[in-house]
Design brief:
Layout: H1 8-35, H2 37-47, H3 55-83, H4 93-118, E1 122-123, E2 135-139, H5 149-156, E3 163-168, H6 175-183, E4 187-189, H7 196-208, E5 214-217, H8 226-239, H9 241-247, H10 258-267, E6 272-279, H11 287-293, E7 300-307, H12 316-341
Parallel strand pairs: 1-7, 2-5, 2-6, 3-4, 3-5
Antiparallel strand pairs: 6-7
Helix pairs in contact: 1-3, 3-4, 3-6, 4-5, 7-10, 8-9
Length: 345
């Protein structure tokens, strides 16, 4: 988007100004959804639809909640800027930990909204594996909200880890993610192939400076869809036929894009690798899917596996095969959850 091409100060000023009208519009949307509730209720009864009559009200409430959290996150960012003497001590360890704490609380607040308004029940795993670093975290990415999970899991781990993330540059359109994302040692990457080498170099530098912290990457690069999966396999059949035969067994995940994760593993050889998958968040992939699935019926479950650095192969080819196998394990876990919840008989 053109906003991303603007200087950061102008982009942030524009987005903050837009928060007010956006919040007003979201309240209007909530009011309209209440007024039309009787119509939706009657239509549901007449058409025998299984969709909840309150789904539009719930969805509009979630938008209001999200925008309120954006406003709150922006206000706290201002106080933190003042507290660091106008940014002079922004990169101190205490400042980094404070920003990481606020980021954790902000991400947790959005998941609280998912619980309240979408009736989602989130089953968290044992988070003690996130207590100490260095860690490299490869997480499944199939929806708007699953990007919050690694931050929340690290926060629940109770350690002093400051998370780094490899994120899409499009997330800079969120004022809170823009402020905290740029104050913490994150890397925002673009979609353009012309910046690929520069992005990989930036990801490598994050690993070199990881120390005892963690770096989160979403190695699929985008949400899963059958069309994207087919396209990815077709590319691999040309560039790496042997690997394409292996990852073609995936049913619910996209093949990993190896550049970023291999760069991290190469630059931080002493870091343990944590694989994260989830069941129940795939319905958050688009606004239409969200609305059609409100309220959520099945719980959201999270898969976590920590792999010691000593168990990771040292050469690139063997390491990629190892990670592909772990990615297949997540896919098999997802398949088992689908059989349990979606096809109980």
């Amino acid at each position: 988007m053109k906003l991303l091409l603007l200087p950061s100060f102008i982009r942030r000023f524009t987005l903050i100004i837009l928060l007010g009208p956006s919040l007003a519009f979201s309240f209007l949307l909530f009011t309209i959804s209440i007024l039309f509730y009787p119509v939706v209720f009657i239509h549901r009864k007449v058409s025998l639809s299984k969709n909840s009559s309150s789904r539009y009200i719930r969805f509009s409430l979630m938008i209001v909640w999200y925008l309120l959290m954006e406003c709150l996150g922006t206000i706290i960012a201002l106080f933190l800027w003042v507290g660091t003497m106008g940014g002079y001590f922004m990169h101190s360890r205490s400042s980094q930990r404070m920003h990481a704490l606020v980021q954790y609380l902000w991400a947790s607040s959005l998941l609280i909204g998912v619980r309240l308004f979408f009736n989602a029940r989130i089953i968290f795993p044992d988070c003690s594996v996130f207590n100490s670093g260095p860690l490299l975290i490869a997480a499944q990415h199939s929806s708007f909200f699953d990007a919050l999970l690694p931050t929340v899991l690290l926060g629940k781990g109770g350690g002093s880890i400051v998370p780094r993330h490899v994120l899409k540059s499009g997330l800079l359109l969120s004022p809170s993610l823009d402020f905290y994302g740029n104050r913490l040692p994150n890397k925002f990457v673009g979609r353009s192939s012309t910046t690929h080498d520069l992005d990989i170099s930036g990801v490598y530098s994050i690993g070199k400076e990881l120390h005892k912290d963690a770096c989160v990457i979403f190695p699929e690069g985008t949400f899963y869809s059958p069309k994207r999966f087919t396209k990815a396999i077709e590319k691999l059949q040309v560039s790496d036929p042997e690997r394409s035969g292996k990852v073609a067994q995936l049913n619910h995940l996209l093949p990993l894009k190896p550049g970023g994760i291999l760069a991290l593993l190469s630059s931080a050889p002493n870091a343990d690798l944590i694989m994260i998958g989830h069941y129940g968040l795939s319905s958050f992939g688009s606004f239409k899917e969200i609305i059609n699935n409100i309220p959520f019926q099945n719980p959201i479950e999270i898969y976590v596996k920590r792999i010691p650095s000593s168990s990771l192969p040292s050469d690139t080819s063997s390491c990629l095969k190892f990670i592909d196998n772990e990615w297949l394990n997540i896919d098999n876990w997802l398949q088992s959850k689908i059989r349990n919840y979606d096809c109980p008989n």
